[in-house]
Protein 1
Amino acid sequence: MGFRLLSLQAPGIWLLLSVMTSLLILILRQRATRHWRVSFVLVTWLGVPYLGLLLGGLSPRLLGLSNIDWFISLGLGLGLLFVMLLLLMLVRATMSVPTRGNPPASREATTWLYQLVQHGAEEFHWCFLRGALWELIQTAPTPPALPGYWAVWLAALLAAPEALCWSRSTAQRLLTLIVLIGTTVLFFYTRNFWLCWLLHAAAWFIVNPQRTQATAAT
């Protein structure tokens, strides 16, 4: 049984590889420049799930990549998305941010595109944890009554410490937890990675704690 769980065609080995890689990055993060550290994290977030999908160890359906119920996604999913973004916009309206000179349009577009990819990679990593745990729980000898419910919240508990370690301020940590909880709820009801990516990126673009912090420091 244990050997089968650690097979390349089972999600257990990919979860273990992801956790070990994340711990290694956190241990060695002070010895590398920020550019290489962030680049390696993005490659890990995308590479481990991709290899798992390529070798048949992960289910694209449970990761929210295929067999998506667009009726639920465009109904309940968009409704949840709208409510969450509305709440974030209300939070953003209460923030007092000083103005500063705008950077060149090309640099601004590059920054936004990079952040979009970064948030997509992080959300892909979170969906990988949800889907892998979902499949792992389903294949247990005595699975619980609601394997999806337990899987998404166990994935949130697994992703939270790592996500908080990469946040550089209290505002970023708070928003990270809000986004993690929001996308967890959205994924549980829709099992749609693309909607979760949309919520994840939109939340950061609306509140944008990076610019808030930099502007305040300036």
Protein 2
Amino acid sequence: MMKYPAWAFERPNTVLKAIAPVVEGSMYVRIDRDRIRQFSSHFMESDIRHWMTSSPVDLSGLSDDQKLAFLFVFNSISFSYWGNPKWLVPLEGNDHPRGTFCMLASLRKAVADGRPILNPEYLATIRREEVAEILRGTTEIPMLSERCAILRELGEGTIKWRGKFANFIEAARSDALDLVLIVRSAFPSFTDASFIGDNYKLQVDFYKRAQLLVSDIHTVFRGNGYGNLSRVEELTACADYILPMVLRHFGILVYNQTLAEQVDGGIQIPKDDQKEIEIRANTIFAVELLREELRERFPGITSMDLNDYLWLARTEILEHVKHHLTRTTAY
């Protein structure tokens, strides 16, 4: 059993407090501290870059308000791309595009084609057929109906906030952690939590998409304007299905035989299953341990810096390496 350190409880991000009992009581997943030290010894400052730097999609032609709206729309429906066959959108010069980049490309093309997907009034009444047309790819994207419902929620929720995405940042007083909570409150689909313990009374918050949205706003605007957010360094890594796969590949996350066989065999793990919760909680905590290990060499390094490094490292891992399969709107 791993002892959860005091410094994690002292951090203001409630996610770190929420995952503590899961990490301490994990039965299926453990963290190898030696591998963390080994990984850290080879980490270079040049490895720090935002995930969008590898994106083939250019947002520079959009106004600031359009970019902000685009990031809200994108992060609201950026989840669950895996499948057989996998949903893909052919991108010029990229034979093996990632689902995330395909989503960016689909939405950017929709804007270029004049579809008003950045307008909350349009989103509030968008039809499934329209979403299907916007996200047309090699096969139907998983959870199409859920994505449609979330876009409607995004439109309706923003209309209640006087129709401007900028109002959320104003209400948060440009505080990254407060913005995460406001987004979660305004849009229930951003509420990413599981429940554990007797009668499932203990809530474990992850807030993957809400935190990634806030991080993207900060980075895309280069820390200026809408991106001038305080406490952005307190965001945690985003517990999805890519990060734990990469951490396991590096030997930092270790699965017991039961979980390893399930993941490697492509057997789906239900949302909120104990195994899935442990994977996500230990992913976040492993990144925090990496950050602590690296802080002496790189004092300004953030968990999101490491999040982006690990996410981008997926392209360097052989395709036969498996990630866990959980069908969910959370990631």
Protein 3
Amino acid sequence: MSVFGQLRDGYGWSVDCTPNSELITTEKTRLVGAIFNAATLDTNFWTKSESTGTVTQSSSELILTSGTANAHYAKVYSVRRANWVTGTSNKFRTQMRVASSDNDVTVRFGVGYGGTMPTITDGAYFKFVGSTVSVNTMANTSETSVASGSFNGQYSAPTLTNNNTYEILYTLGKVYFLINNVLIHTATFSTTHWTSNTTNFHAFADVVNTGDSSAIAHTFRMINICRLGKYSTAPTYRHITTATTTICKYGGGMLHRVCVNNPTNNAITIYDDIAATLGKEVAIIDPDTSNTPFQMEYGLPFNNGLTIVTAGTPDLTVVYE
């Protein structure tokens, strides 16, 4: 490169250095997604929803098969969400193929969120209607769709019945769509956000019958979301000394540890939510009265928020990000 130029990669993205002329690099961390092992869907990591359509697994591949009547579907999404950390970007990646195309069958896959999953209200995803390919973003149920004829990148229609690699990289201002390592479209959002409710998404895929059709199978070899950056950032803390409900954070993050500075025989309950919601407990700590402080290491991500409920006269420090 010339002294007047800027180092860029194959996608045209610039490469940065520190003021001390050190190249800035980053590591990739998988946030959600687990291997499709053998013939059993691992419900610790994936949730399925079916209406005549089926979600099955065979030979270490996930298979979503449409039903044969209007509105029948098969859907799957990751149990956890991929938390967003400011100053990084996240990347969705899958390898998939379709058995055949039918204009009465729609398949989507990418990142998504909805208050009542598997219904998606926000996200970014590829969509096939028959053999027609589009890239899409959704904010509060409002979809912005760009068809293949209007892509602003380098697009050569893939053979959908072959296994292809599909990727979505997303930041706060742009969403990038790639097929087989080629940037096909960049969606830019200069004045409005492309998502309304969250930037913490599930990985998802669904197939919906929009009219009478034969059953169509869509096969996925892998689905995941990675953060292009470290898993942990510099944490913060909250010191709690009363019997109270403390909302430590709204939205996703990481619970590092709980330091019990003055153990008393009173429960400390940790919730993955912005309230003391039954069923969202992370841990219930009931320490014996002691003069010996102790700490409990967790290193666990939370998706919805972090709430601590204390009783009695505690003295604890919660370390999280």
